[in-house]
Amino acid sequence: MPLSSASKRALTDQNKGEDASNHKRRRVSHENNSPPNKKLEDSSQSTMTDSQRRPNFSALTSPSNGIARHASPLANNKPGAAKKLVIKNFKEKPKMPENFQQETWKKLGEAVDAIHKSCSIRYSLEELYQAVENMCSYKMSASLYDQLKHICEDHVKANLNQFLGDTLDYEQFLKLIDNCWQNHCRQMIMIRSIFLFLDRTYVLQNSAILSIWDMGLDLFRANIISHKTVEARTVDGLLKLIERERNGEAVNRQLLKSLLRMLSDLQIYHDSFEKKFLDATEQLYAAEGQQLMQERDVPEYLAHVDKRLNEENERLLHYLDQSTKKALVMCVERQLLEQHLHQILQKGLDQLLDANRIPDMTLLFQLFNRVRDGLRQLFLSFGLYIKNTGRVIVVNQENDSDKDKDMVQSLLDFKDKIDNIISTCFGRNDKFINAMKDSFENFINQRQNKPAELIAKYVDSKLRAGNKEATEEELERLLDKIMVLFRFIHGKDVFEAFYKKDLAKRLLVGKSASVDAEKSMLSKLKQECGAAFTGKLEGMFKDMELSKELTLAFKQYMQNQDAPGGIDLTVNILTMGHWPTYQPMEVHLPSEMIQFQEVFKTFYLGKHSGRKLQWQPTLGHCVLKATFAGVKKELQVSLFQSLCLLLFNEGDDYTYSEIKTATAITDSELRRTLQSLACGKARVLIKAPKGKEVEDDDRFTFCNDFKHKLYRIKINQIQMKETQEENTSTTERVFQDRQYQVDAAIVRIMKTRKTLSHNLLIAELYNQLKFPVKSPDLKKRIESLIDRDYMERDKDNPTNYHYMA
């Protein structure tokens, strides 16, 4: 029989101490000047009995003693006076209605059945929740939990039979098991919401008892999924679906995800599914790897491996448990990569490197980096490729002089290619860098001495004036690359010999493209090989500096001397031990030149007694003033060219033999000299008959109609073996002239100011320089002067410069 309202509240209060989660009832008190509680009335105004009044105070019951509180007559009923509460015991102890447990469980059991059958529930959820709370309050929690578990177990067992038939294929079976699992989860969530009070009180206080949710999982695991037939068909079906997806078919990933999460939630994923899944994966990729290595080339195979790894990662992302990731990825890597490392390298590495297939090599590195011993085999094969390819460039060209000319450039290109591969594809891995260095040193020294000679000649070609291929920055980078090759060669003394010979010619003839570049190269050699290696080279630069000072002194000396008119002589005094040995050559000089030489000899020996001067006309050069059809020009030519041109002051037409007799220049030198004057770009002589080669019966006439846009014209000498000319263009020459002017302006400003900031120096240069100039070009010149110790940066503030005396 249902309890009355007052009795129910009283009985509830008696059990408040047992349930810590019940709501605490507020004690009612009145503050001064606060309005009285409407449920409490003054005794003088109330005629209600205690029994009538008691239900109204059930909301104020104490959780500890179960006694009701009500207001006593007020001691002072004046407005604003304090009022007191008097607490009295219940006169009667409330009783539990008969058949309370049976009736309540009947209602709850009916609701659970309705949930299992997906029917509507007759009672409100609030009412069912209150019923659970009341049973727990009356200490019926244990029996309530058992009854709930029993009814849920019966329902789960009833679902087993639908999975034991053989009429369904594996996909239909999986959908059926998934539908059953989804329904079970949905039902347990709703049941738990009704029995939440039980779950949060009784279950929490008993660690040996499963929560309602875990109980549902345990029932499903024990009665359905752990059944041998159900478990086997479920796992086999999952493996078949995954196999179909690996073969390129579209499958229901949501079904896979749901069922695999079911296995994970039921804690049988690793024992029931994962081992079989990994075994199937191992077998699939072992067979696939063997087959594809035979059928496909390396780039296609690598792309397939990468695709497979991405596919497995997608499966991990979409439905596989993350705990499977390590074992799954290792399985794919082992079967598709680790088992075929040597075969991949042997079959395709050389082709990838030859074709410079950057994306494929990047992928190769990434894949080999994933497996044990992959990188070691890769950098060993990489080093072997460098040795074989480099040996073809160096050794196999030994008897081919034409290819020898391109050897250094081929080596630089090959080095750039390898560096780019190491940087782009191999992530600048130290092992590959070391393999590259060892391999270059190995093959470049397979051919003794020749690489050192060719490298020196290549440097000469880049440092000579007329090199329009690179800016200063590019030339500096090129020299750095050449120094890398220089480090690999063993015959560095051979390099020094050839480099010194070419440097001497550049310095004496004035064909050096940049003094900064020359000194930069010298500094690099000194840093690499020490001061002893560059001592003679530095002596050559020192001789040139001393010769400049000597020339100034000679000009002052000539002010008090009678000298041939129209001649300005500049002499370079060379220390024989520093410079290459030149074969003396006797040529017929004009009498004015011979007279000037004697004057200089007297001047020099007067300063340095005991020395001997030996004139070397081979590398001499002159500036001749010429008049063409009334237009004056200056011709910058070699001494041999000057001797030939000066003959035309006496006549307008000469044969080859007549020129040879008059100048006494050797045959080979004379032919090259006349070729440069009559067959080059600036043709100041006319050759008859026309042609590129000079023959014995050729005649040469002065070209009176010669025209050129420049006032000073440089006529280059034809090279001895090749017709490969290195002319200085107008732009290059102007650029060089401006460099000197900028350097002089910077030094002049810094010498005056001593200390100056970068911005102020740039502004001052803009004011002083008479030609347009860009800030980056000025910055380069400043850096050059800093390198040459004309100025230095402030240690505390790098934007400030100090002049160095």
TrEMBL record:
UniProt-annotated stretches for the region Disordered: 1-80
Domain Cullin family profile: 450-678
InterPro entries linked: Cullin (IPR045093), Cullin-like_AB (IPR059120), Cullin_CS (IPR016157), Cullin_homology (IPR016158), Cullin_homology_sf (IPR036317), Cullin_N (IPR001373), Cullin_neddylation_domain (IPR019559), Cullin_repeat-like_dom_sf (IPR016159)
Family: Belongs to the cullin family.
Extent of the signal sequence: none
Keywords, ordered alphabetically: Biological rhythms, DNA damage, DNA repair, Host-virus interaction, Isopeptide bond, Phosphoprotein, Ubl conjugation, Ubl conjugation pathway
Pathway: Protein modification; protein ubiquitination
Pfam families: Cullin, Cullin_AB, Cullin_Nedd8
Compositionally biased spans, kind Polar residues: 43-65
One Gene Ontology cellular component: Cul4A-RING E3 ubiquitin ligase complex
GO-annotated molecular function: ubiquitin protein ligase binding
GO biological process, one term: proteasome-mediated ubiquitin-dependent protein catabolic process
Record-given protein name: Cullin-4A
